[in-house]
Structure formats: structure tokens, C-alpha cells
Automatic annotation (TrEMBL):
SUPFAM superfamilies per record: C-terminal (heme d1) domain of cytochrome cd1-nitrite reductase
Keyword field contains Isomerase: no
PROSITE patterns linked to this entry: PROKAR_LIPOPROTEIN (PS51257)
Family matches, as Pfam families: SGL
InterPro entries named among the record's database cross-references: Haem_d1_sf, Host-pathogen_enzymatic-act, SGL, WD40/YVTN_repeat-like_dom_sf
Keywords per UniProt: Signal
Domain SMP-30/Gluconolactonase/LRE-like region: 55-207
Protein name listed in UniProt: YncE family protein
Keyword Protease: no
Length: 360
């Protein structure tokens, strides 16, 4: 079966990888790029499947779920893989009729919420049997007639917030129990990308491709502030992390400004621009006082000291380290590593899943 893939669809796929400047990123068909044979002893790596994106850990820590869009050439539907988080072995799998990208899990661990980015929807999947139990499809269409891309999903107080990749973008608010759309926050700027909720400020932070950080009050679902930390300089802000103890908000840009910004979470003032180059996913580890950043172009994952911002460690994971997930105890870091797209939207091999033991 031939799958029609619009320019926006590929854009969504790559913005989930976090790098719009590579949006139809092309390379000649050559042998798959692989990580070096000699890797750190604290690292486990496994070829898993095409189209790996975001991950979620079961609350009990006994299952690692990985969203997969599968292939973009002649492949219909996607998968959700269930792995043993200690060994990375597959312990379950769900075949889905739509492709999967962003992911969140309920506090009870009984439901996965997965964005179906190319079709403009979000699905609720029962973790007990792997079945899709409910789904909402958003009605918005761009000028080409394609759905707005549903990128990241954030679960907050029984509500799902989903960023819509469009120009202008939107933020959909969905009742997580009924899977009914309750609100659409309009005028969210070009390409809504990252989402983060801060317990400290009781506000939702939204990144977009126009270089803005939006501050949203989740009680009213209104945009209260619009920060542009780099001013008129071109920026495509992507993903967030927060240090609640110091009130720092970290936001990445892998393709335009190529930096990680450290902002004051209350004012939006720039505290520092980290000179780390292209920066995609970011996580803050309060247990170890470290910051982790994926460098998609450089093929590396960095560990930074959260006070001095000095690089403490670096893992080479070519070709394209993508999403990050940190265990609740702060001692294990999971990474998805993507292959490059060829001109026909195929890749040269499966994407990888990586487990890093931060204690070794």
C-alpha cells in the first residue's frame, strides 16, 4: 500500500525529531550509520524498529513504552512497543491503524495517550490489552487540506494538552477520561512544539517555531504572557526542562539558534545561552544535579553540570539521538536514536533504543 505523505506530514515527523531545517532531510542510500563498536560500559543499545519517537515509563517502573510511526514509505499504521526497562527486550507490542509520535501515561499506568501526528489526533490505549479504547480527531486543516500535526501531549489534572503544528498553531485541550475536545487555544504562534507544566508557578509553558515561549494559565486556558527570549533573532524553540529549586527553565533549539537557553521561569529573562550547539531533547535531573541534551546533528548525548554548565560526560550515538526519558529515581536515562531519511522517505535501518546507567 502506498502511503501519501504531505510536506506538512514530513515536517511534523521531523519536528518531533526536533529539526525543521532538515525537513525532508535527505541522504543517498548507503549502509546504515552505526554507533562505534566500542561503547561506554554503562550503555545498552538495541535496534528496535523504524520511526521511534517518544517514550513513557510505567509508574511501577516495570515497563518502558516506545511510540513508533514505523516506516513512512509503503507502510500503513504504527506500533507501540513494550520493553523491559532493564534489558530492553520486547515484552509486548500493539499494532495501531495510525502512526504514533508523542506519548504520555496516566498516573495509574493503565492508559497511554499517543499523538497520531500525521492524522491530527490522539489515541488512548489500554495498557492491559494494548487496545485503542478511545480517540479524538481534530478538525482543523491547513490550506493544502491536511490535518494540523498533533505533536506533543501533556497530561495535567485529567486534561490532555496537545500542541498543533500549523501556522498559526493551536493548543487543544481534551478531557482525558471522555477523550472529548473541550477547548482550542488559538493564536499560539507558528508550529506549537514543546509543552511543560510547572508546579512552582502553576503555569503551562509552550514553545513554538516563531521563537516564542507562551505562558498559559491552565485554570482559564488563556495565554497570559508571550516571551521572545532571543528577540528578533530567528529561533525555533522545541523542548523544555525545569529546575524547580532555582526557577530555571531550559528550552532547546537544534536548527536556528542552535543553543539551549536558560530562562528565569517567572520573568522569561535569559540567564544564559549554553554554547552546546544543536540541542534537541533536554532533561533536568534533580537527583544528580545534571542536565542532559541530545545533539541531533552531532550524534551525541551530553551530560552537563547543572551549576557550572560544564560538560561532565558525552555519549556518541550516531546518527541522530532524539528523545530522552529519565527514570523516577534519576539513575537511568533512555534515548531513542533515529536514522536519516532518504529521498524516498525510507531509512537505511531500524531506529535504536538506548539505556544509560548513570551510576556507572
Amino acid at each position: 500500500m502506498k502511503v501519501k505523505t504531505s510536506a506538512l506530514a514530513l515536517l511534523v515527523a521531523v519536528t518531533l525529531s526536533g529539526c525543521v531545517s532538515h525537513s525532508a532531510e535527505t541522504k543517498p542510500a548507503t549502509a546504515p550509520e552505526k554507533a562505534p563498536a566500542t561503547q561506554a560500559t554503562n550503555l545498552q543499545q538495541r535496534d528496535l524498529a523504524d520511526g521511534l519517537y517518544e517514550m513513557a515509563l510505567a509508574p511501577k517502573g516495570d515497563a518502558l513504552y516506545v511510540a513508533s510511526a514505523e516506516g513512512f514509505k509503503d507502510v500503513q499504521g504504527g506500533m507501540v512497543y513494550k520493553l523491559d526497562p532493564k534489558t530492553l527486550k520486547t515484552i509486548g507490542a500493539t499494532h495501531t491503524d495510525l502512526k504514533n509520535f508523542g506519548m504520555a501515561i496516566s498516573p495509574a499506568g493503565d492508559t497511554l495517550y499517543v499523538t497520531n501526528s500525521l492524522d491530527g489526533g490522539v489515541s488512548a490505549i489500554n495498557t492491559a490489552d494494548g487496545k485503542v479504547k478511545a480517540r479524538v480527531m481534530f478538525k482543523e486543516r491547513n490550506k493544502e487540506g491536511f490535518p494540523y500535526g498533533a505533536r506533543q501531549v501533556l497530561l495535567l489534572d485529567g486534561k490532555l494538552y496537545i500542541g498543533g503544528v500549523a501556522d498559526p498553531g493551536v493548543i487543544w485541550v481534551v478531557d482525558a477520561k471522555t477523550m472529548k475536545l473541550t477547548k482550542t487555544i488559538q493564536n499560539a504562534g507558528k508550529w506549537v512544539t514543546g509543552l511543560l507544566y510547572s508546579e512552582q508557578t502553576q503555569r503551562l509553558y509552550v514553545a513554538n517555531g516563531g521563537g516564542e515561549v507562551l505562558v498559559v494559565n491552565p485554570r482559564t486556558n488563556r495565554i497570559e504572557k508571550r516571551w521572545k527570549p532571543l528577540g528578533e533573532k530567528e529561533a525555533l524553540l522545541l523542548n523544555f526542562a525545569e529546575d524547580t529549586a532555582t526557577g530555571r527553565l531550559f528550552v532547546t533549539d537544534s536548527s536556528k539558534a542552535k543553543t539551549t537557553l536558560v530562562l528565569d521561569i517567572r520573568t522569561g529573562d535569559v540567564i544564559k545561552k549554553l554554547p552546546v550547539g544543536d540541542s534537541l531533547a533536554v532533561k533536568f535531573n534533580a537527583k544528580r544535579h545534571e542536565i542532559y541534551i541530545t545533539q541531533r546533528d552531532a550524534g551525541k548525548v551530553l551530560s552537563l553540570d547543572a551549576t557550572t554548565y560544564a560538560v561532565k560526560n558525552s555519549w556518541s550515538l550516531p546518527p541522530h539521538p532524539n528523545s530522552l526519558l529519565l527514570s523516577d529515581d534519576g539513575q537511568t536515562l533512555f534515548v531513542t536514536v533515529k536514522q536519516s531519511f532518504n529521498k524516498d522517505h525510507s531509512t537505511n535501518g531500524p531506529d535504536n533504543i538506548v539505556r544509560i546507567d548513570l551510576n556507572k
